[in-house]
Automatic annotation (TrEMBL):
Residues 319-425 form the FAD-binding FR-type domain. PROSITE patterns: FAD_FR. This is FAD-binding FR-type domain-containing protein. It holds the Pfam family FAD_binding_6.
Length: 448
């Protein structure tokens, strides 16, 4: 089993998520979970993000792109990238790393923005093993990530990149600063002693990333899964890299490298976070009009906290967070109880989706927990004002035991979002095998 390194453990202890992280660690594997249709997910992608370390120790993050099928997994231990066409920008430092370093460690972030799905892989880029225009990544770590803070966007066409230019320097120019200040997504590369380069995504409403000066960038670290892979890496190695893309606008791509650190008590105030990342700029590369695809923004994540001083109307407002009231508790067995919550307005959800809650408990602290919804909405189009979760009492589980022992009718908690695409009401007709087990019935799956 994969073990956390000392930096990850240090941050987990400080944040109070050590137990949760140990539970989630079981989802990290040294092979790809292809039996769950992962390769179909890979083959549908038109772009992935890569992080690699150059000979100076700098972490560069890049977007690799191609037609469907350019990225896939021929077996559970290997990712394959088709490089027969230009899959990376000319002059991109990551391209140079792959050409100069025969077997370099690489972080891979596979993400489907439209479906809000992402999958992280760390491994070794086998540049010398290229055959038929393909190169391979030998998998060292692989695991899915939750969809929080991912904005829904889709490709609507190809962009003309023929007139692009490249700007570079050591301090951010005004064009780069303006691009960062309106960004809703950044890709964050770090490095660690276990697998080398690592890469993940940070998202929020426009304005969540701040630029205090031409040599500094900062952003809030919103609540995540509690494993703190990126923040843990910064505890042992401050080298980091950023990638910003103006998806719907100019198509500009901005790479920034430097050093980053966690600020546990920032003077600045961030809604939804008490911790921030401070990034010190060493150098940048700005590629004008170089994003190969034209994108359409469909929706901001419901999990995005409000950003002070920025317009949060329209698509950015979202239905969450919302306060819900506990109105009923049904004891299903000695270890399982069902909790029904009442919302002030209909909440849309589908069978198989999950709900995330924020619990602020005076004697325990602030906790975020997620459970699969165990009832069907009255209407799959309008939603329902009630929603249920069935919670199993878990030995050592802080919130599961608190709910069973301390929850009182009338109490309010914060519903922070509904998510998940593991639901049966898909556009493509399918056959379903329903299996009943345990203490909870399978609710009807009819679409009203």
């Amino acid at each position: 089993m994969v073990q956390f390194h000392e930096g990850e453990i240090a941050v987990q202890v400080k944040a109070g998520t050590r137990g949760v992280a140990e539970e989630l660690k079981r989802g990290i594997s040294d092979r790809l979970d292809l039996e769950f249709g992962r390769n179909e997910f890979f083959r549908d992608l038109r772009m992935v993000y890569l992080a690699a370390v150059d000979r100076y120790g700098d972490v560069w993050v890049s977007e690799a792109s191609g037609e469907k099928g350019f990225f896939q997994a021929p077996d559970p231990n290997t990712l394959q990238v088709d490089v027969s066409n230009d899959y990376l920008l000319h002059g991109d430092p990551v391209r140079e790393i792959f050409e100069e370093q025969s077997d370099t460690q690489v972080g891979v972030l596979a993400i489907d923005f439209d479906k809000r799905r992402r999958y992280r892989t760390n491994g070794q880029f086998l540049a010398t093993k290229s055959t038929n225009g393909k190169v391979a990544v030998r998998v060292a770590e692989a695991f899915p990530n939750c969809p929080k803070y991912i904005q829904r966007r889709s490709i609507v066409g190809k962009r003309d990149t023929s007139g692009n230019q490249v700007l570079s320097g050591v301090q951010l120019p005004k064009e780069a600063i303006a691009m960062i200040q309106k960004a809703d997504t950044l890709v964050f590369g770090t490095r660690n002693p276990r697998t080398g380069a690592d890469v993940n995504l940070r998202g929020g409403n426009p304005g969540f990333v701040r630029v205090p000066s031409s040599s500094e960038i900062m952003w809030p670290e919103y609540r995540g899964n509690g494993m703190f892979n990126s923040s843990g890496n910064l505890e042992v190695d401050h080298h980091a890299g950023l990638l910003f893309i103006d998806y719907e606008g100019s198509g500009n791509i901005l790479q920034v490298v430097g050093e980053a650190s966690s600020d546990w008590d920032p003077q600045e105030t961030f809604e939804g976070s008490t911790r921030a990342i401070r990034f010190r700029v060493k150098k940048f590369r700005l590629y004008t009009g170089s994003e190969p695809y034209e994108w359409k923004l469909n929706a901001f994540s419901d999990y995005n906290p409000v950003v002070a001083g920025h317009d949060q109307t329209g698509d950015r407002a979202g239905p969450f967070p919302v306060q819900v009231k506990l109105v009923k508790v049904v004891k299903e067995s000695d270890s399982v109880s069902t909790f029904r919550f009442l919302a002030p307005r209909p909440v849309k959800f589908l069978p198989g989706q999950y709900a995330s809650f924020d619990f602020q408990i005076a004697e325990l602290g602030d906790f975020t927990r997620t459970w699969t919804l165990s009832e069907t909405a009255n209407s799959t189009t309008r939603g329902d004002v009630t929603l249920e979760i069935s919670v199993k009492r878990k030995p050592g589980g802080v919130i599961s035991n608190w709910l069973h022992d301390k929850a009182e009718l009338g109490m309010e908690v914060t519903l922070t979002g509904i998510g998940g695409d593991c639901e049966p009401l898909a556009a493509t007709p399918m056959l379903f095998l329903l299996i009943r087990n345990g203490t909870r019935r399978i609710d009807r799956l009819a679409a009203n």
